[in-house]
Hints:
The chain has one domain (5-64): Winged helix-like DNA-binding domain superfamily/Winged helix DNA-binding domain (Arc Repressor Mutant, subunit A, Orthogonal Bundle). 42% of the residues lie in helices and 5% in strands. The protein has helices at residues 25-33, 38-44, 50-64, and strands at residues 5-6, 17-18.
Amino acid sequence: MEEKISINPDICNGRPVITGTRITVQTILEFLGAGDSIDEILEEYPSLTREDIHACMQYASRLMANRYEVQKIA
């Protein structure tokens, strides 16, 4: 996954993207969340691979594994 997803402050305002593209992880997850299949996403973005889509899902899963704490400010 590490080589499939990259973060560069000069590309898409530093959002995580599929390496070598300007397609954000968020974009792929939004398609999946809207009910699109992996095959439908690959039709829309023919430069992507199935492994790219899986890397996006793994990336999101790892982020959610972190501990988050909501703090009330003033």
